Amino acid sequence: MTVFDYNAGAGLYPCKTINRRGSLVYKRFDSVAEALRFAIEDMPASLLRGSVLEVEEARFDGLQMRKLYEADAYPLTRRP
Fold first, then answer.
1. What does residue 59 show for φ and ψ, rounded to 5 degrees?
2. Does the predicted TM-score (pTM) go above 0.85?
3. Which of 13, 42, 52, 59 is most solvent-facing, going by the fewest CB within 10 Å?
């Protein structure tokens, strides 16, 4: 079993859409947990599908981000 480090720094690349309003661009986070919280709880759900989370050398798509967020090991309190 691999242990995932939710404390590692992470970069989030939101989905690029043609008709996107607002200014969601690359954002750097001090921890993966904070990046996941932003992606799942604050970003419009429609952007998650094409977004990419980069942690060290690894990249995670929207489905993988959701799984990491829903994992029992996720260290932050989730919003209802």
1. -125, 140
2. yes
3. 42
Total length of the chain: 80
CB 5 within 8 A of CB 32: yes
The Cα–Cα gap between 25 and 69 comes to 21
Question: Average pLDDT over the chain, rounded to whole?
Answer: 89
pLDDT classification of 1: cutoffs 50, 70, 90: very low
Q: Which strands make up the sheet holding 58-60, listed edge to edge? A: 27-29, 10-13, 52-55, 58-60
What secondary structure letter does DSSP report for 25? -
CA dihedral 79, 65, 29, 20 (to 10 degrees): -90
